[in-house]
Amino acid sequence: MKIICIGRNYAAHIEELKNETPGNPVVFLKPDTAVLKNGAAFYYPDFSKNIHHEVELVLKISKEGKYIQKEFAHRYFEQIGLGIDFTARDLQDQCKAKGLPWEIAKAFNGSAPLGEFLPVSELKELNNIDFHLRINGEERQRGNTRLMLFDFSTLIEYVSEFFTLKKGDLIYTGTPAGVGPVHIGDHLEGFIGTQKLLDFEVK
Ligand code: ZN
Questions:
Q1: How much of the chain, in percent, has pLDDT values that exceed 70?
Q2: Distance of CA 54 from the midpoint of ligand 1 (Å)
Q3: Which CB contacts under 8 angstroms, 24+ apart, belong to 10-17?
């Protein structure tokens, strides 16, 4: 199982990090050791002093495919869930400044908490899915798929040109604005609409 992540997919988030708007989706990977499931706690790592939360909608790939055309992309996922793309922003900034890949800042152990999934059939319009993140009961990030630069089908078409998608693979589809630091003791809750799908603590 692999985790494919999309960066810079919401204009307001690109602005807050002062990044350039990409012509194609920005893609990076996380290993399966990044996943935290079933509400498992995230243990704050020693190598960073600035871990940021990025709440993202996650597609679960339901069958194998490559070179998938946009018009057929919807056949390759049956469930949508919520995850956090934890990012060691201090390490990422150091890597970026040196023009180096920032894999260690993104793909470390526990960097991909994953919540429950909803069947696609339960979501009326894929281009109008509302989701948000609360920390200690307070809303921190809110997004809607209509604000994505690249929609689900475009992402699947693009990504499957480079990586064969396999059943069970996950695509983290990018974060909306509002990213910020987490701290030990924080309680994170993620929602699609009003349904809570993600719930865990930072320890
Ligand atoms: Zn992200």
A1: 100
A2: 5
A3: 10/143, 10/147, 10/148, 10/149, 10/174, 10/175, 10/176, 10/177, 11/147, 11/149, 12/147, 12/176, 12/177, 13/174, 13/175, 13/176, 13/177, 13/178, 13/179, 15/177, 16/177, 16/178, 16/179, 17/179
d(CA 174, ligand 1 centre) in Å: 5
Ligand 1 mean position, distance from CA 5 (Å): 7
Q: How close is the Cα of 52 to the center of ligand 1, in Å?
A: 10
Domains of the chain by start residue, with CATH: 3-201 (3.90.850.10)
Write out pLDDT tens, residues 33-81: 999 999 999 999 999 999 999 999 999 999 999 999 999 999 999 999 9
Residue 13: is its pLDDT beyond 90?
Answer: no
Using the mean position of ligand 1's atoms as its centre, give its distance from the Cα of residue 71 in Å: 25
Q: Per-residue pLDDT for 109 more than 90?
A: yes
Across 9-30, average pLDDT: 88
Q: Say how many Å lie between the CA of residue 24 and the centre of ligand 1.
A: 15
Q: How far is the CA of 61 from the centre of ligand 1 (A)?
A: 18
Report CA(156)–ligand 1 centroid distance (Å). 16
pLDDT at 15: 82
